[in-house]
Amino acid sequence: MRYREGGRLDTSGVSDRRGRGGMGGGRGIAVGGGGLGLVGLLIVVVLQLAGGGGGGTGAALGGLSGLGQGETTNNTALEQRCRTGADANDSVECAVVADIQSIQDYWATTLGSRYTATDTVFFSGSVQTSCGAASSGSGPFYCPADQLVYIDLSFFDQLRQDFGAQGGLFVDAYVIAHEYGHHVQNLLGTNAQVHQGVTGPDSGTVRLELQADCYAGTWANHAETVPDESGQPLIAEINQDDIDRALDAAARIGDDFIQQNLGNGRVDQNAFTHGSSEQRQKWFTTGYQSGDPNQCDTFGTDDLG
Predict the structure, then answer these.
(1) At residue 120, what are phi and psi to the nearest 5 degrees?
(2) Which of 7, 14, 51, 222 is geometrically suited to a Cys-Cys bond with 26, CB 3.0 to 4.6 A?
């Protein structure tokens, strides 16, 4: 994956709280952690308990809500480091800034007035959200109550070291695009189709996660042509190796892989919350090959793969 060297990066889509973490209460349910954290299968329960349990969509508080006591946002250092696509080619954090920019440009074009931009919160260690408190072990996640994406960037190292994924810039972008898929679902009201706490291979929870994978694929299909403010695409190249690495990552964050390799060694489909490895690969591929979000209707099919 390569970014256009002269492309201008916009850090306004990031709320940098690294080194300013705080733990505390909150309401609302975080969406799944993307199934990506080491304890991704538990994140919904953990945040529900921390926040007193709330509605699946929560109250849209808007702005940079969810700040805990002593937490602040300061993008000054990030702005200085991440100025151009050349910086994105050399730095993971700058690459993520570019990913967020491209993903949001794509959805703004695709959904028009139905899309509302939102921030990704960079944190380290722990963070306070309107869905409750979370730690880096939760993995990346989206909190519908404050409409923010949260990620500790050290997760990308964890994905390679603990999950054995090949990793790479496009895998990182897939992770971010998946979480923005949850933001799109929240804006479209898709969350309302999911009953809290229901798990299993055909559950609404699994369908929500597979649809987010598919949405990530649709962005990937268009990424090389999505124009930035200059009218040129910020992403210069996504090649087959990038797609293969994303599919490798998708396989390693399936419920069955996590249970068998990072859990007790036993696969329990009744506990599925994000879908099997094969399903996650299938729905990312569906989105990538079609480039059409309308092909991502995981709620309207009896065949999830």
Answers:
(1) -105, 130
(2) 51
Name the pTM for this structure.
0.87
Residue type present at position 198: V
- The candidate with the shortest Cα–Cα distance to 131, out of 15, 33, 26, 24, is 26
Buried/exposed 31-69: b ≥16 CB within 10 Å, e otherwise: bbbbbbbbebbebbebbbebbeebebbbebeeebbbbbe
**Strand, helix or coil for residue 140:** coil
DSSP 181: H
- Contact call for residues 77 and 16 (beta carbons, < 8 A): yes
Each residue of 222-279: pLDDT tens digit? 999 999 999 999 999 999 999 999 999 999 999 999 999 988 899 999 999 999 999 9
Check: CB of residue 152 under 8 Å from CB of residue 136: yes
Other CB atoms closer than 10 Å to residue 198's CB: what's the count? Answer: 12
Q: How many other C-beta atoms can be found within 10 angstroms of the C-beta atom of residue 290?
A: 15
Of all helices (H) and strands (E), which one includes residue 264? none
- Residue pair 183/147 in contact by the 8 Å Cβ criterion: yes
Question: Which stretch of DSSP H or E encloses residue 66?
Answer: none
Contacts of 155 (CB under 8 A, 6+ apart): 36, 37, 136, 139, 140, 175
The confidence score (pLDDT) of residue 74 equals 85
